[in-house]
User: What shape does this take?
Amino acid sequence: MMKAIGGFLLLALVACGPAMRDDDVGDDGSGSNNGSGSGSGSGVARECSKMDIIFVVDNSGSMEEEQSNLATNFPMFAQVLENYTTSDGQPLDYRVAITTTGRDISYTVTSGPISLPFNEHGENGAFQNNCNSTKRWLERTDPNMAQTLACRADVGIEGPGIEMPLLMTKWALADRVQDNTNAGFLRDDALLAVVILTDEDDASTTANNFTLTVATANPPSDWNPQDEVNFLDQLKGNRTRWAAGVIAGDGNCSSGFGDAADGVRLKEFVNLANSQNSTQAVFSSICDGDLTVGLTEALDTFQAACGAIIL
Assistant: This one.
C-alpha cells in the first residue's frame, strides 16, 4: 500500500494537482455471510480424494513480474495435480479458481496541502471466467486446463492499491457464493486449499470513505487473521479440511520482482492456522525471485493435509 500511495503522490506533485481514477464505485462491500461448516465428521483422519484450490493474486501496479512468473509455473503446478494419485491409485479430483486481492473501494490520501480522492474497482472475490472459458473454475477434465490456468494468472496490474487477500478469500467463498457468482465451487468432502500471492501485507477492511496519510498508509483493518481462521474453520467444519500457502514478503525484501513489504499479518494467519498441532499452512518468501519454491511448498502442504483429513 505504501508503494502505491507514494507513487501516486509523486505523480500528483509533478503534475501540481490532484489525480483521480474514474472507476465507478460499487457497493460498500461490507459482506455478512460467514458460510457454514459441514459438521464435525467422523473424527477419524483419512486420505482425501478431492481438492478445491483458490488462488488469491495481488493485481496492484507492482505485480507484473510476479504474475508472469506465476503463469510460467502453472503448467508445473497443474502437472503435479495431474500426477497426484490416492493410495488406491485413483487420480485426484481437483478444481482450481483464481480471484484477486482487491475490492471496490473509495478513500482519500492526504500529504500536506495535497488531497487525492481514489475510487478503485476490484473483483470483490469473484472468480475469473475469461480465457475462452466462461466457467468460474477449472477441473481435471477441462481441455487445455494448464494453458487456461496460466492465462487466468494474468489478472492485470490495474487493481486497487489496498491489498486484502484475507477478506477477499472470505468474500470469494461466502459472499460470492451467497449471490451465486461462485456458487457450486466448494464441496463438503474436498480439502479447501488457498494460495495467496502478494508483495504487500494484508490490509483487509470493510470500511469505505476513509482518509489516509503518507505517514499512516494503512486503512482501518476490521478483518483480522484470527477472523480468517475462524471463518475457514466454520466454513469447512474442521481445521483438517483446509490448508493454505502464502507467498509474500519475508521482512522488507527485494528480488528481481522488485520490493516487497513484510507480510506481518499474513505470517500471523499462517501461525494461527498451524496452532492445533498440525501443519495446515506454509509461508514462503516472494523475494526468492522464482515462485517455483513457494508453489512447491504450498503443494507439499496441501498433499500432506490431504493425507490426514477428517471428514
